[in-house]
């Protein structure tokens, strides 16, 4: 059975990618992955406040849980696995695919916007370049 990985980040593009995967890979095992990027905590003015990183991480985990609830609702009767990983998004997505025998990655064309997208680059582009499996980019 095919194993599909769908990175989700709360953007409309990642939602579209999940819908695409659910529609086109009906018989596959689909895993929605949310990557918590600890670098993002360093881009705020509060990053130097003691205890901020722990609070930020807890908020990021809660946000991932909310994303997974929405993904489960979207999946309906389809059995959807969910996983949260910590790390640089593109590397973490590629490593997860490699380590868990994923056959295909389906992801949105972009999720980030503004300064963080400029500073961090395009996650989708990096995944396409590094992935050991086929990648479908949904626009």
Topology:
Blueprint: E1 3-7, H1 12-24, E2 29-36, H2 52-75, E3 80-86, H3 89-99, E4 104-108, H4 114-120, H5 123-130, E5 135-138
Helix pairs in contact: 3-5
Shape summary: globular
CATH homologous superfamily assignment: HUPs
CATH architecture: 3-Layer(aba) Sandwich
Q: What ranges have pLDDT less than 50 throughout 5 or more consecutive residues?
A: none
Number of separate strands = 5
Give the C-level CATH assignment: Alpha Beta
Percent in strands? 15-25%
The major β-sheet equals: 5 strands, parallel
Query: So what's the oligomer here?
Result: single chain
CATH topology: Rossmann fold
**SS-based class:** alpha/beta
Distinct helical segment count: 5
Query: Percent range for helical residues?
Result: 40-55%
On the 0 to 100 scale, the average pLDDT is 87
Number of domains: 1
Walkthrough of the structure:
This protein is α/β, with parallel strands linked by helices. It has a single domain (3-138), classed as Rossmann fold, CATH 3.40.50. 45% of the residues lie in helices and 21% in strands. The chain contains five helices and five strands; from the N terminus they run βαβαβαβααβ. It has helices spanning 12-24, 52-75, 89-99, 114-120, 123-130; strands at residues 3-7, 29-36, 80-86, 104-108, 135-138. The chain has a five-stranded parallel sheet, with helices on both faces. α3 (89-99) packs parallel to α5 (123-130). The chain is globular and about 40 Å long. The two termini are 26 Å apart.
């Amino acid at each position: 059975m095919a194993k599909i990985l769908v990175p989700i980040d709360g953007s409309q593009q990642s939602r579209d990618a999940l819908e695409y995967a659910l529609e086109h890979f009906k018989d596959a095992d689909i895993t929605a992955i949310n990557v918590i990027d600890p670098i993002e905590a360093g881009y705020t003015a509060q990053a130097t406040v003691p205890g901020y990183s722990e609070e930020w991480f807890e908020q990021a985990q809660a946000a991932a849980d909310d994303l997974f609830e929405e993904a489960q609702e979207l999946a309906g009767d389809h059995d959807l696995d969910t996983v949260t990983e910590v790390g640089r998004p593109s590397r973490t997505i590629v490593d997860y695919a490699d380590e868990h025998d994923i056959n295909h990655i389906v992801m949105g064309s972009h999720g980030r916007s503004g300064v963080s997208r400029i500073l961090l680059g395009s996650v989708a582009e990096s995944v396409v370049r590094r992935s050991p499996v086929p990648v479908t980019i949904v626009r």
